[in-house]
Amino acid sequence: MRNEKLIKMIKITLLSVMAFLLMYIELPIPIFPEFLKIDISDLPALLGAFALGPVAGVLIELFKNILHGFLASKTAFVGEIANFLVGSCLILVSGYIYKIRKSKGGAIVGLLIGTIVMSVFAAILNYFVVLPLYETVLGFPITSIVAMGSKINHNITNLNSFIIWMIIPFNLFKGVILSAMTLALYKSVSPILHKENMESQYKSKQNNY
Fold first, then answer.
1. Structural domain boundaries, residue 71
2. Each residue of 35-48: pLDDT tens digit?
3. What is the pLDDT of residues 136-192, one digit of tens each?
4. Mean pLDDT, to the nearest integer, of 183-203?
5. CATH code at position 168
6. Total structural domains in the chain?
7. What is the rounded CA–CA span in Å between residue 135 and residue 23?
């Protein structure tokens, strides 16, 4: 039992480091403002949540953001806190649904519901917490953020419309990309993440004969 916990923590640590490194790869999307960039650093956490459970996925997300906060933060931890909370929302919902329904259909439903919940949560969090903190802590005025969005989409005239036309679509788009990559990779990655557990179960059965 102790050995299994150690192996699980090693897997969580390795996935956390992978997720941290992926945070450095950010892709700007022309239909969104420059500061909204797509990264796939939630992917290792999603894979971990499916293979090791939703709590493990959240731990990967936490360790990833702690590492980035201390080693590479440009936002005084504001961006990392937001990344952790929003990412954990997707991971918890998707991972929990997959845990109670371990099938491809369960994975698809989990990722779909997780993406929707994440997008709604991100909208609320940005409106009430994240964007006000950017203004207060980093001196990045909300009016400037709205203006950046307005240049891309003329329907954006205030914070409310920025949330509706930018934050929600951005997170939906990101969720779809992460979901597609998770579905594409999990089948091949799963045996690796489950390897020691399967061997342990096999040895346990052998000892019972």
1. 2-22+39-196
2. 999 999 999 999 99
3. 999 999 999 999 999 999 999 999 999 999 999 999 999 999 999 999 999 999 888
4. 74
5. 1.10.1760.20
6. 1
7. 23
Specify if 209 maps to a domain.
Answer: no
Instruction: Tell how strand 27-28 and strand 37-38 pair up.
Output: antiparallel
**Residue 53 and residue 95 in contact, taking contact as beta carbons nearer than 8 Å:** yes
Question: Does residue 28 fall inside a structural domain?
Answer: no
CA dihedral 181→98→55→25, nearest 10 degrees, is: 10
The one-character DSSP state at 23 is: T
d(CA 150, CA 183): 35
- In the predicted structure, residue 208 carries a pLDDT above the cut 50: no
- Short-list 187, 168, 61, CA closest to 115: 168
Give CA angle at 33 (168, 28), nearest 5°.
100
For residues 55 and 52, give the distance between their C-alpha atoms in angstroms, rounded to a whole number.
8
Residues in Cβ contact with 121 at an 8 Å cutoff, skipping those fewer than 6 apart: 85, 86, 89
Question: SS3 for 31?
Answer: coil
